[in-house]
Amino acid sequence: MSDSENYLSAIQKILAELNSSKNCERILHNIIAQLVKTLDIKTCAIVELNPETEFLEIRKSHNLSYNFCKRYRKAIDSPLLSALIWQGEAISIPDSKYALRVVEHLRMEHEFVSAYVTPLISQQQPLGFLYVDADALNYFDQEHKQVVDIFAEVISTCLFLDRLNDQLKNLRVEDEETGTMRFEQYLPYLKENFHRSSRMNEPYSLLLLDIEKFGNLMTMYGLKTVQGILKEVVEKIKVQLRKYDGICRFGADEFLISLPAVSRADAFKVAEKIVKLFDETKFSAQKLNVGVFIGVASFPENAKSFNGLLMAVKNALQEAKRKDQPPKIATIETMYE
Fold first, then answer.
1. pTM of the predicted model, to two decimals?
2. Strand spans (E) along the chain
């Protein structure tokens, strides 16, 4: 068989694998095996962009040790990697001796002579990159690059479908009591907003709202009335938010509000508007007064990570609950990792 026939045969096999198997790990393993066999390459790695941390991590590989793959965790901290991931620009290294700076950013476990790195993208969503190298000069000619690019497209489709399946597994129906998302369902969007704000050097704020004396309301007026109050609370808050803000149920009587590109000072003003709204509203058919505590925390003032920001807003809410006088809104000065 000619090289072209070998390439077509390999591509047909991986497409058949993609269509017949639902196991992403098995598909990726077989794709790498086919790519290594078809092009006779030395090292191959599928490097995935972790959507939660935006660090690059090795998902599957050939000729890399388990310990190396486990330790590999690279930030997108150079113009080269940024162009590869965010602009989708492939990188070709005909001779590593004359591209030492490039090699430094892309080096895997072993020395190599030539390499080719192509982005993994699906539905305009950056997913990582496919890395291949060899021990021969100028090994990756135009035909080789085209084959690697086709394999990269199949890998991208596999990774995208895998993420989509994970989202579908975690998808839950809308919270029946409140008419809004549960925290578990909304968490990927919260993390995405945080990482986008961090990347764009923009502020990002969270409000954590707690219904005052919720247990007393439940005891005095019953479950049905309280469920009605919770739905009213969500409806009233949504009116105060922009279309790209968000709200989710965080606990029995707690709601987490996402405010992208909003500073801590402006987030505090949003909290004040919500408190004023509660003061002016009579809830349920019984025309009840309902109080609220609100914690305010922001990036970058309170945290360097999303988990740190979540911890900060929880502690800010506890500060709000300690207040004797209204408005029962609080922020904190503590910085969390």
1. 0.53
2. 43-49, 55-62, 74-75, 91-93, 114-122, 125-134, 181-182, 204-211, 246-249, 254-260, 292-299, 329-331
